[in-house]
Amino acid sequence: MKFTLNWLKDHLETEAGLDEILSTLNSIGLEVEGVENPAEKLAPFTVAEVLEAEPHPDADKLRVCKVSTGTETLQIVCGAPNARAGIKVVLGQPGAYVPGLDVTLKKAKIRGVESNGMMCSVRELELGDEHDGIIELPEDAPVGQAFADYAKLDDPVIEIAITPNRQDCLGVHGIARDLAAAGLGTLKPLKATAVGGEYESDVTVSIDLPEGAEDACPIFIGRKFTGVKNGDSPKWLQDRLKAIGLRPISALVDVTNYISYDLGRPLHVYDANKLTGNLKARLAEAGESFLALDGKTYTAEGGETVIADDAGVQGFGGIIGGEDTGCDETTTDVILEVAYFDPKRTAITGRKHGIITDARYRFERGVDPLFVETGAEIASQMILNLCGGKPSTLFQAGVTPDWGRAVPFRASRVKTLGGVDLSADESLAILDRLGFTVIGDDPYTVEVPSWRRDVEGEADIVEEVLRIHGYDNIPSVQLPVTDHKAGTTLSPRQKRARAAKRRLAAVGLHETMTWSFMNRTLATLFGGGNDCLIVDNPVSSELDCMRPSVLPNLVEAAQRNRDRGAQGVALFEVGPVYLDDTEKGQLLVATGIRAGRFADRHWATSTRTVDVFDAKRDAMAALEAVGAPVANLQAFDEAPDYYHPGRSGTLRLGPKNVLASFGELHPKALKGLDADGPVVGFEVYLDRIPQPKKTDAARPALTVSNLQSVERDFAFLVERDTKVADLVRAVKGSDKTFITDVSVFDVYEGKGVPEGQKSIALSVLLTPTDATFADKDIEAIAGRVCAAAEKATGAVLRS
Question: Which structural domain, as residue segments, surrounds residue 543?
Answer without folding.
Answer: 492-688
